[in-house]
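Field reference: "sequence" (input) and "structure" (output). Example, VTC domain-containing protein:
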Amino acid sequence: MSEICYRNEFKHEISQKNKVVLTSRLRKVLKHDENSVGNSYSIRSLYFDTIYDDAYWDKEDGRSYREKFRIRYYNNDASFIRLEKKVKDGAVGYKQSACITKEMADQLIQKKYDCLADASHPLLQEFYAKCKSQCMEPKVIITYEREAFAYGPGNTRITLDFDMHASTQISSFFHDGRIGIREPGIDCVLEVKFDNYLPGWIQSLVQTEETNSTSHSKYAIGRHLNQI
């Protein structure tokens, strides 16, 4: 498993007007990240939780340490799928990932976790053990668009996420197009992520009229939209 790298992450909910202003500004000085097709790309994730919804309630109760598991692919391309573990620990967090096949993903969707019984990757081993011991199961699909920019110093990434939909029709994970309920009232979520420091000019670049930070959780919102 790759070495754990703690990162800072700040989120802001912004209006459509400020999204347009900000993307125009960012495109002039920063490069899009490697996943981009044109200006943006689609992301689809399937989140797992215990039968008691521990990950959901850890977020709702504001626990300092939280973790959640998901499988994810991009741009409707099921040839590249990752299992990811995302951890939040106080003000910082980290993410670990391992590639899986579509056949394995199909098995996980059906809660047939023994497909990971002989996995060699430590993250797949951990997920398999927790599925068995904590009765993990797929809970909600989150689909959205992202425009992302990268800057080397500070390992800085700036992302703008929009048009989020959530569905509990788990069998639709590999269906094309938008599925589920659209998130109401939120035009865009700006996220700024970096390792040890954020370059000052980047900090100035992402300033908008809307300065209030948010703990916006796609997983928790997706559960709310589908009435948990």
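The longest helix spans residues 16-29.
The longest strand covers residues 137-151.
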